[in-house]
Amino acid sequence: MKVSIIGIGLIGGSMARALRIAELADQIYGVDSNKEHIKVALELGIIDKEIELAQTPLQSDLIIVATPVNHIVEIVSSLLDLVTDQIIIDVGSTKSTLMAAIKSHPKRGRFVGTHPMAGTEYSGPQAAIPDLFINRCSVLVDIDDSDRDAVELVENVYRSMAMTIVYHDSADHDIHSAYVSHISHISSFALALTVLEKEKNEKRIFELAGGGFRSTVRLANSNADTWVPIFEQNRDFVLDVLDEHINTISKFRTMLIKKDFQGFREMIEQANQIKKIVN
Fold first, then answer.
1. Fewer C-beta within 10 Å: the chain N or C terminus?
2. Cα 218 from Cα 120, distance rounded (Å)
3. Where are the domains of the chain?
4. Alpha carbon of 97 to those of 67, 210, 228, 266, 275: distances in Å?
5. Torsions phi, psi of 147, nearest 5?
6. pLDDT value, residue 115
């Protein structure tokens, strides 16, 4: 299978590496507006050749769009104008805007919306790792609007990466992503800013930073070019989740003010139940 990847960053690059290991791709082409990304991807053997966006339908069986979400609608729409039987997927973290934009396209069936739920705080092709997706979940979105052969090929791709596949409509995907991914990033950004502000006056504060702090603020290293468009497209759902999060933090604050440490204990023990989900 010949594959084109548009956006050779962490996810796009890791998919290229995973496809090679699974022996599903005998030729991988790369498209990226950042020529340094192309250079590094060629040097690392992530891609075999650079091509132009408009060439991808002519050269590929599968086209993977792995750009920031603010570019995906335009790219997918332009590709759908060009494809015949080629299959296009995206790997973006938001779906409702994209799905609404292409719903009436006459070649909509050649597109499958996907979101492999994997990543790190690093970016660029140098951050790509082949085992990023192993034992992680990939969401396929609004598959009733996609052609059956397209869905089957994409399912095979993700299973070859040892991923679990689940199915959602675009609105459900976006609200669930707000809860399990987007709010985590906002929380990490906020904690990092809080500590950085304190560090202005207490220069040695980071000497005390242990594993708990480092794991909590790890996501604060994430790329703004990736995350600002996600927050923009998923604004309404993120606001709902953020309101709930702020309300919960306020409860902890109130208990501390009132010295209600029994209530504090009960909330912590309730929070411990998350292990049933994440373990």
1. C
2. 9
3. 2-168, 173-278
4. 15, 40, 15, 40, 33
5. -65, 145
6. 98
**Secondary structure class of 49 (helix, strand, coil):** strand
- What was the pLDDT predicted at 275? 79
Amino acid identity, residue 227? W
Candidates 3.40.190.10, 3.30.420.40, 3.40.50.720, 3.40.50.300; correct CATH number of 2-168?
3.40.50.720
- Top CATH class of 173-278 equals mainly alpha
* Matching residue, tokens 């250079």: 39
* SS3 (DSSP) at 194: helix
Q: Kindly give the parts of the chain with pLDDT less than 50.
A: none
Bridge partners (DSSP) listed for residue 2 = 27
Q: Which residue has the tokens 């923009």?
A: 232
Q: How many CB atoms lie within 10 A of CB 170?
A: 19
Nearest one of 170, 148, 177 to 240, comparing CA atoms: 177
β-sheet bridge partners, residue 140: 114, 167
Question: What's the Rg (C-alpha) of the chain?
Answer: 21
Task: Tell me the pLDDT tens digit for each residue of 39-50.
Answer: 999 999 999 999
The type of residue at 55 is Q
Classified as helix, coil or strand, 143 is: helix
Residue in the structure block whose two tokens are 């869905």: 151
